[in-house]
């Protein structure tokens, strides 16, 4: 059997092997490795989270690469149907439709299409759609919802096969999956194999600049192999005859970019947003070692501060629970060394997680309904990327004297007064 973990030796984007060793967050089990309490392993395998940056193309990556089938064949991450995410998915449809001049009947291919919510919106406005997602459990749900989905890893073969069967795609979309992909060149081979001459590739990734500046250390875990800037994506696309023509910043997942790329020779004009973000990245020092090393220093400090705050509350007899059990939350709890003694449970809307224990920390995960019966004094807001929406809908908890701890960029406590602004 192939090893579960390999070390990244050469950069997956530019092929160089000149790495800046940024920091290590220690060894932890996989962030989505939820445990069944009836079938607990004596020991959970743990793998290092070591952060490195390529001095050639400035790709930030984790050194240890877990075999993708271990991570993605059965996946508990289901696209959120929160207001924020639904609104964002509708905006994506608008952005892509306008830029790719999408007409009814044209083909949209999405990689990492999860349960097909995004593609369903394209289907509603008349496009033909094909989703590709390696998670067999999620692809089955998508197919049952009427969104045609191949339960496979997308690559050159899949792109060629879809092209042969369905013709060329006006849009190849990959939302929040590029960070998960090791062999990005194979995926872009597939994208260019199916892409129409005037089509667009649209890739949404968490934005490296936001990660560094907002101390989002908890978004660094094994599933996220790569952390991209516009600069690095430009290098990557260039190798596949693609040119970045536009970029949108979006508030999802703590700050993301949607990068639109067209074939080199196509008529798509390059918009000013591209140059603006490239110079912003230079201005913020993303081409220097210091930006990454200073982030690492801040991250370790924030980890200490969160741990101290929660341990201090627990020591004073106050109860703390986690709000949400996202991958970044299981990661944060592990990095901060918090367990069930300090954080009694985590509530999460994802039914696949209910009744399970969080990886490593073994904190129980329950439904929001169960959580209401055992409300804590403080909720540690692990799903901080939904802060506004969650605090908005939990006003009653606040008015009963409950508090939220928002962990990043620095831990801060939110009380009922003043009432936070909600969009
Ligand atoms: P997300 O930030 O997308 O996860 P990840 O860090 O794994 O990429 O997921 C948010 C999690 O928070 C998800 O498990 C669902 C949960 N959640 C709640 O429990 N309640 C809520 O109101 C919202 C918006 C999310
Ligand atoms: Zn590189």
Helix/strand class: alpha/beta
CATH architecture of the largest domain: 3-Layer(aba) Sandwich
Poorly predicted sequence stretches spanning 5 or more consecutive residues: none
Question: How helix-rich are the residues, as a percent range?
Answer: 25-40%
Basic shape: globular
Q: Mean of residue pLDDT?
A: 96
- Can you count the beta strands? 19
Strand portion: 15-25%
CATH class of the largest domain: Alpha Beta
Domain C-methyltransferase: 252-409
Domain Methyltransferase putative zinc binding: 11-72
InterPro entries: Methyltransf_Zn-bd_dom_put, Methyltransf_Zn-bd_dom_put_sf, MeTrfase_14, SAM-dependent_MTases_sf
GO molecular function, one term: methyltransferase activity
Q: What do these coordinates show?
A:
The protein is of the alpha/beta class. The protein has two domains: 83-288, 3-Layer(aba) Sandwich (Rossmann fold); 291-414, Rossmann fold. The protein is 33% helix and 23% strand. The chain contains 14 helices and 19 strands. The strands form four sheets. A seven-stranded mixed β-sheet has the order 8-7-6-9-10-13-12, sandwiched between helices. It has a six-stranded mixed β-sheet with strand order 16-15-14-17-18-19. A four-stranded antiparallel β-sheet has the order 2-3-4-11, covered by helices on one side. Helix 4 links the parallel strand 7 (128-132) and strand 8 (149-150). The structure holds thymidine-5'-diphosphate (TYD) and zinc ion. InterPro entries: Methyltransf_Zn-bd_dom_put, Methyltransf_Zn-bd_dom_put_sf, MeTrfase_14, SAM-dependent_MTases_sf. Keywords: Methyltransferase, Transferase. One of its GO terms (molecular function) is methyltransferase activity. Residues 252-409 form the C-methyltransferase domain.
């Amino acid at each position: 059997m192939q090893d579960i973990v390999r070390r990244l030796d050469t950069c997956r984007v530019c092929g160089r092997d000149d790495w800046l060793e940024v920091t290590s967050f220690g060894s932890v089990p996989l962030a989505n490795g939820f445990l069944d309490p009836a079938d607990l392993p004596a020991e959970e395998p743990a793998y290092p989270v070591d952060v490195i940056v390529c001095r050639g193309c400035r790709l930030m990556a984790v050194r240890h690469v877990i075999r993708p089938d271990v991570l993605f064949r059965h996946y508990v991450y289901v696209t959120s149907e929160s207001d924020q995410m639904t609104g964002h998915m509708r905006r994506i449809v608008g952005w892509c439709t306008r830029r790719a001049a999408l007409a009814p009947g044209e083909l949209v291919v999405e990689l990492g299409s999860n349960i097909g919510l995004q593609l369903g919106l394209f289907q509603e406005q008349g496009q033909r759609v094909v989703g590709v997602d390696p998670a067999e459990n999620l692809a089955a749900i998508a197919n049952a919802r009427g969104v045609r989905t191949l339960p496979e890893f997308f690559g050159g073969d899949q792109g060629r096969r879809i092209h042969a069967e369905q013709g060329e795609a006006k849009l190849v979309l990959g939302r929040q999956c590029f960070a998960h992909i090791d062999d990005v060149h194979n995926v872009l081979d597939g994208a260019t194999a199916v892409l129409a001459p005037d089509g667009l590739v649209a890739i949404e990734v968490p934005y490296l600049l936001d990660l560094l500046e907002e101390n989002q250390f908890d978004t660094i875990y094994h599933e996220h192999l790569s952390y991209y800037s516009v600069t690095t994506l430009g290098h990557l696309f260039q190798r596949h005859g693609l040119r970045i023509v536009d970029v949108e910043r979006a508030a999802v997942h703590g700050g993301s970019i949607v990068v639109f790329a067209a074939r080199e020779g196509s008529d798509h004009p390059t918009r000013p947003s591209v140059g603006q973000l490239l110079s912003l990245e230079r201005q913020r020092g993303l081409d220097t070692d210091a930006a990454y090393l200073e982030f690492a220093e801040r991250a370790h400090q924030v980890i200490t501060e969160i741990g101290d705050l929660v341990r201090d509350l627990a020591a004073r007899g106050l109860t703390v629970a986690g709000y949400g059990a996202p991958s970044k939350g299981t990661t944060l709890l592990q990095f901060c060394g918090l367990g069930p003694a300090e954080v009694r449970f985590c509530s999460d809307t994802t039914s696949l997680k209910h009744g399970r224990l969080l990886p490593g920390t073994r904190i129980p995960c329950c439904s929001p309904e169960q959580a209401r019966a055992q409300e804590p004094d403080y909720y540690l807001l692990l799903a901080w990327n939904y802060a506004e929406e969650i605090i908005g809908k939990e006003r009653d908890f606040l008015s009963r004297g409950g508090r939220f701890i928002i962990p990043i960029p620095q831990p801060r406590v939110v009380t009922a007064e003043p009432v936070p602004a909600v969009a």
